[in-house]
Amino acid sequence: MNEKSAMIKDALILFAITVVAGLLLGVVYDVTKEPIAQQKEKAKQEACADVFAAAAAFETVTDAQGAAMSDAVNGVDIDEVMYAMDGDGNLAGYVITVTDHEGYGGDIQFSMGVTLDGTLNGISILSISETAGLGMKAGDVLVPQFENKKAEQFSYTKQGAANENEIDAISGATITTNAIVNGVNAGLLYFRDVLLTADSF
Question: Which of 22-31, 48-57, 85-94, 125-134 has the lowest mean pLDDT?
Fold first, then answer.
């Protein structure tokens, strides 16, 4: 076999391997696509239940074109909004997922549950990459402070929270604290200015 024939043969073998590998990847994708989607939906429902335990069901809020409701408020992304429904199918409030881009380690994403009267049930952090031992304490230090609070806007303090709208900052992690407080405030503003004024349900 001359050199040219050997090259053609090798090329055909490589082509055949590529085609087979592509077909196998396609099959694997088809087989795993549905379980992955189901797992994501389950995780989303669990995150919603975390911040709106009184709700019986959650449904994605969509705009007039049928797209999931999303926006941006003061530089904070409103990633998704879910209706929180009671056992009779009535609207009890919303679960708003936000991403603040001003964390010390990058984006911080969390869900927040808000009842129709503006009470913040609480927040649940979905994604965070802050400094270990400092900003990563957000789940233990900040999250509990937002539970069952009613305020139009929150602020943080280093002197000890004295009012309903004040949150104690994480010691040594002011940037993380600021990012989460800003994210909560953006979500509350979106709730008041968009969700409560929209004839959406």
Answer: 22-31
Higher pLDDT, 75 or 176: 176
**Inter-residue contact 122 to 51 (CB < 8 Å):** yes
Give the start-to-end residue ranges of the domains of the chain.
57-195
Task: Name the DSSP letter for residue 137.
Answer: G
**What torsion, rounded to 10 degrees, do the Cα atoms 24, 28, 33, 34 define?**
120
Instruction: Spell 25-56 as b/e; 16+ CB within 10 A means b.
Output: eeeeeeeeeeeeeeeeeeebeebbbbbbeebe
Question: What is the model's pTM?
Answer: 0.77
pLDDT in tens, 14-23: 888 888 888 8
Q: How many CA atoms lie less than 13 Å away from 39 in the CB half-sphere?
A: 5
